[in-house]
Amino acid sequence: MAPLRAASRVPEPAPPASSHPSPKEAARRKLQTLAEILASKNDNDSRLDTDFNHLSQEAKALFRKQYLEIPAEMRNDRGTIVYILGKSGNLTSPADWAFLKKVEEEPPCLSLEDCSRPMNASVDREEPGLDVTLVYPQLVALKQMERALTGPQAGGSSPTTLEEARAVVEAGAESSSPDVSRLARGILRRF
User: Fold this and answer.
1) Which terminus in the chain has less CB density within 10 A, N or C?
2) Strand, helix or coil at 141?
């Protein structure tokens, strides 16, 4: 009887490249697009209105993490992330609402040099728009909630969505920032 020879192995073909990235890869790509926009300092980048609709849970988690990693003094960058995460198509889980409520509960930023310390006397306190800049993420969250409560999609919103949006606004009404609490109370009066 002849000895058995090992069969020669024919390499299996590689699986076809998928045209769809994995959810984690797609989320990383969204985060990279966000990084490009933030680096450009272009608040009018059209991708803000087109590329971040109906984000995956993975992408939203990365964006929330990025928000926390950005220094508190970078108010515009933080506000941009709040804008994206506060879009109606991105408000789909309890974590989404909890994030926005936490933004409203943040203490007001006292200075663009150091949010935890009052401004130096040498800083021009009358700088136009400074009060708004210091609470920009909170104001953006409230404007997104105003859209959720009063916009065209509000009529088709679930009772849970309306309750959650109202809870975010109520958190804003409790803010120690006069600008934030005034806007929140105004929204609550209309709702």
Assistant:
1) N
2) helix
